[in-house]
Structures are given as C-alpha cells and as structure tokens.
Write a structure and sequence with these properties.
With 53 residues, the chain is mainly alpha-helical. The chain contains 1 helix and no strands.
C-alpha cells in the first residue's frame, strides 16, 4: 500500500476562478441579474491576484 502526502499552497475554490474571469472581463457579479428572478445570496469568491498579469 502506497501513501502519498501532497502539500497545497494558495488553495482556491471554483468561485475564485469565476471571480477572476469576471474581473478580467470587467464584470461585477453582484450587479448581474436575470429579469424576473430572485437573486440568491451566494459566495462570489475572490479574484486570484497572483495569476492576473
């Protein structure tokens, strides 16, 4: 049986990737809305500044 140990640095979630892409496009996810639909309070994530040039 083999055991592995991985070190993860600067862990990010999918919502952080979405926030990064939206920032690159100049979009504010908090202002995006679908007419006639109630907004859900969700985690919008944080842009990953380390990969933005």
């Amino acid at each position: 049986m083999m055991t592995c140990s991985f070190t993860i640095e600067d862990r990010h979630y999918v919502t952080d990737i979405h926030a990064t892409v939206m920032k690159q496009f100049g979009l504010d996810p908090r202002r995006l809305a679908v007419p006639g639909r109630k907004r859900l309070e969700v985690d919008y994530g944080h842009p990953i500044e380390g990969i933005i040039a």
